[in-house]
Amino acid sequence: MDASRARRFPFAGALRERLKQRRGGPAAADDGRCERIELRVQGEARYYLLYRPPGLDPARPAPLILNLHGGGGNPEQQRRDTGMDAVADAHGCAVVYGAGTSPLGPFLTWNVHVSQTYATRRNIDDVGYVQRVMEDVRGRVNVDPRRCYAAGFSMGGILCYTLACELSGVFAAVAPVSAVMQTPPDRRRPGRPVPIIHFHGLRDRNCVFDGGIGPNARDPVPRPGVRESIAWWVQHNGLDPEPSARGRRGAAEFEQYGADDHPGTVVLWMLHDGGHTWPGGETTIPEARVGPVNRDIAASRLMWDFFRRHPLPVLSGKDYEEMEG
After folding, report:
1. How far apart are CA 13 and CA 135, in angstroms?
2. What angle do CA 215, 81, 46 make, to 5 degrees?
3. Strand ranges (DSSP E) for the chain?
4. Are 237 and 264 in contact (CB under 8 A)?
5. Chain CA centroid to CA 279, Å
6. What are the structural domains of the chain?
7. DSSP-derived 3-state class of residue 58
8. Strand, helix or coil at 249?
9. Taking the CB of residue 198, how many other CB atoms lie within 10 A of it?
10. Residue 318 and residue 213: Cα distance in Å, rounded?
11. CA-CA distance, 152 to 147, in Å (whole number)?
12. How far is 281 from 78, CA to CA, in rounded Å?
């Protein structure tokens, strides 16, 4: 790796070594339960991983979770770090692990509108990629169109917010982790209230809770704060700006806006001891670089509990067309 790349990805050597050590482990893409799917999107070669749990009944429409890695990550890493396969096994849903783009091998990025990284500088159409992936998956899995959800970490979480804005007729709810909303105002066009469950470590020094440029950020651009992102969705979804419920589990604290059965419930989990990490998951990058992992909650399980309460509303075909722009 040349000097400029080393400066941008100082943890790359450690990450590559950990990936090598764990190759063939539970997150290997060729383990017989997770398939690597190659496809072309707007003339470019792309791929994704598709996980189908044992016993998935092809005659019964299944929920689907799109799970997006962070900047400098990849689908294999996201699969391992989030433990989403276990959620799929327990609840009979398929999981798609999306793959961004980059010239740096497995260190992939997404177009998040404001960034100095590869996909944003090249203005890669990652919303178009997601649409193409969803179309391809429907030819392989009997997907329940009312129960498709998106989750993502860091840069992948930022993309989740854009999917909520632009594909609200596809994804019933979204779950960003360690992310904020950077979707340009003229592209914030959700056609309905979109349920949101957001997780963020208060010790995150990459994507800082209060906004600005994180002291550990390798993509040094100013970002809005988490409160700003949550407030936009609370207002859009027609919710009271004061939380309807609060609670705590150890160092994990939550605020909920709207009742459980509201069509646009918003939940914010704040991890007082959490860094730039997936709560209850793993981290391939050393904690010295990204901070600690909160163990009081398991984000993947909480996401599923939230998702299952929020299927896509029953609307007409015309409504869906309008929601997708």
Report:
1. 36
2. 90
3. 34-41, 44-51, 62-68, 94-98, 143-153, 173-177, 196-201, 245-249, 252-257, 266-271
4. yes
5. 13
6. 19-323 (3.40.50.1820)
7. coil
8. strand
9. 26
10. 42
11. 17
12. 10
Rounded to an integer, what distance in angstroms lies between the CA atom of residue 290 and that of residue 211?
17
Give 128's contacts (C-beta < 8 A, 6+ positions apart).
41, 42
Q: What is the pLDDT along the chain (325 residues), one digit of tens a residue?
A: 444 444 444 344 444 444 443 333 334 565 678 999 999 999 999 999 999 999 899 999 999 999 999 999 999 999 999 999 999 999 999 999 999 999 988 999 999 999 999 999 999 999 999 999 999 999 999 999 999 999 999 999 999 999 999 999 999 999 999 999 999 999 999 999 999 999 999 999 999 999 999 999 989 999 999 999 999 999 999 999 999 999 999 999 999 999 999 999 999 999 999 999 999 999 988 998 999 999 999 999 999 999 999 999 986 555 545 444 4
Secondary structure of residue 267 in the 3-state scheme: strand
Q: Across the strands, what pairs with 284?
A: none
Name the DSSP class of 132: H
Interhelix angle 126-138/155-166, rounded to 10 degrees, is: 80
Kindly state the tokens that stand for 186. 């003229």
Do 66 and 72 form a contact (C-beta atoms < 8 A)? no
C-alpha Rg value of the chain to the nearest Å: 18
For residue 212, what are its two tokens? 């600005």
Q: Do 171 and 197 touch, CB atoms closer than 8 A?
A: no
Classify 124 as helix, strand or coil: coil
